[in-house]
Amino acid sequence: MNILVPLIVMIPLLGAAIALVLGRRRRLQVLVSLVSLAAVVAISAVLLGMVDATGPAVVQIGGWQPPWGIVLVVDRLSAMMVLISALMLLGVLLFAVGQGIADGDSDAPVSIFHPTYLVLGAGLFNAFIAGDLFNMYVGFEMLLSASYVLLTLGGTGARIRVGITYIVVSLVSSIMFLAAIALIYGATGTVTLALLAERIPALPGDVQLILGLLLLLAFSIKAAVFPLSFWLPDSYPTAPAPVTAVFAGLLTKVGVYAILRTQTLLFPDSPLQIPLLIVAGLTLVIGILGALAQADIKRMLSFTLVSHIGYLILGIAIGTPLAIAATIYYVVHHITVQTTLFLTAGLIERTGGTTSLSRLGGLLKSAPLVAGIFFLGALNLGGIPPFSGFLGKLALFQAGVASGGVLIYILIAAGALTSLLTLYALARAWNMAFWRPTKQLIDYSSAMSASLQEDPQDEGEVLTKKLSPLMIGATSAMLLLSLSLTVFAGPIFDYTARAAADIQNPSTYIDAVFPNGTP
Fold it and tell me: Bridge partners of 72?
C-alpha cells in the first residue's frame, strides 16, 4: 500500500498538466480537477486508516535510500492533514465551478485557475508528507508560486498591490527557511528529518537555539503569528472568494504544521517555550482586537484567522500529549470553519453586493440559507457548546491547567476572552448584515464609519450577482463537515491522541524511516 504515498502529489501534478493542455475546454478542465482531488481524498482516507492500524508509511523515491534520496513519510499527523486539506480543496473547487457557471468565469480565467489550483494542492500535500527539510521547502515554494497567481487573478489594481506585498513577505520567509536548511546541513551533514532528530540534540545548546529560532521565524511568517501577521488582513480579502477561502483555511496551517513537526521532532527540549507562550497570547489578543475594529466581513474574518492561530501556538508551546492532541483537533476544526465562513462571505458579497457592514442589511429575508450557514459557523468559531470550537478550546485549556504555571493561567484567561470577543464580533456582523432592516442603513452608516474601519480597497460599490445552487451546496457541505467534528468528536480525539503519542516519541518516526537503524 506504500505505493499510494507518492500518488498524493503525482495525481494533482499530472492533473495540472492535463488541465493546462485543455485550456480551451472548460468542462474537461473541471472534470480533470474534480477527479484529481477526489482521487486524493480517497487515497488519503485509505492511508489514514492504514497508518493508524500499522504505523507510518514510508517511500524512498527512485529506490534511493535516505539520507541520499528523497523520502516521503505519512504518519497519523500528516495523513490527517492531507485528508482534511484534500476535502477542503475539493469543496472550494465545487464552489469555484458554481461561481464560474454564474459568472462565465470572467473573474477567474479557467485556463489559468485549474492547473494553478492543482499545483497549489500538490505543494500542500508535498509539504505535509516530506521526510526532509529541503523537500518540505520545495512543497512550500510550489504552493507559494501557485498562490501568487491565484491571488492576482483578474489583474485588478488592488490585487496587484497586495500581491506585491504578499510576494515580498513570502520571499523573505523562504530565504530564511533556505538559510536555516543550509546551516542545519552544515552543522549535521543531513536534512533528513529522521536523522536530524538524532543529530541535532548532540549539537551545542547555542547552536540548537539558533537553528530552532531560524526555522521558527520562517514558519511563523507563513503561519501569520504576531507580529509577523501584518501582511495577512490586507492580502486575503482582495482575492476571489474561492481563493480567499483556500488561503484562509489551509496556507497558514502549513506553517503551523511545520512548527509542530520541527519543534516536537527536532527540538523537543527547546528553551523557546516561554517566548512561544508570550507570542501565542499576543496573537490571540491583538488579532481579535483588530477584528473588532473592522467594518468589512472579510477583513474581520482575516483578523479572527490571525487571532485563532494563537490557540495553535499555545498548544504547541505547552507541548504535553494532551496539548498536542488538542492542537491537532483544533487545526482540523479551524481549517473547516474558516473555509466555511470565507465561502459564506463570498455568498454574502454576491447577495448583498458588498461585504461592508455599513451597506448590508435585511439579508435574512432575501437569503435565509446564507444567514443560517453564517450563524452556525459563527457559533462554532466563537466556541459555543457543543460545537467543535468549544471542544477544541476546552481540551487546550485542560492541557494548560494540567501543565500549570502563572503564565499559562493568564493565557487561558486570554483564550477565554478571545473566544467571547470572537463571538461578539461575529454576532455583530450577523445582526447588521442579516437581522437589521434595510431602512436603518442610512442612519447607521455615518455612526459606524466613525467607529469601525472600512476595507481600504473598498471603492464603495454595491454590485449584486447571481448565486448558483452549486455554490450554496458546496458551502453547506463544508458546514456539515465542520459540524461532523462535533458529532464524531470522540473518535477524532482518540485519533489525535494517538497522533500526539507518535509525535511525542520521535523513535516511532525514526524507526519507520530507518527500520535497520540509522547510518
Answer: 59, 130
Domain positions in the chain: 272-455+466-511
pTM over 0.70: yes
DSSP 494: H
How far is the first Cα of the chain from the last one, in angstroms, to the nearest whole number?
26
State the CB neighbour count (10 A cutoff) for residue 437: 10
Residue 53 phi, psi (nearest 5): -90, -35
- Establish how many alpha carbons lie within 13 A of residue 183's alpha carbon, considering only the half-sphere containing its beta carbon: 17
Residue in 310, 312, 275 with CA at minimum distance from that of residue 289? 310
DSSP string, 439-457: GGHHHHHHHHHHHSBPPTT
Q: For each successive 10 residues of the chain (519 residues), what is the average pLDDT? A: 88 93 84 95 95 90 74 93 96 90 63 89 94 92 88 70 80 91 92 90 89 92 87 78 88 92 87 90 94 89 93 93 95 95 92 83 86 94 92 94 91 94 92 76 50 59 77 94 94 95 87 77
d(CA 424, CA 418): 10
Burial of 98 per CB tally in 10 Å (0-12, 13-18, 19+): buried
Separation of alpha carbons 344 and 340, rounded Å: 6
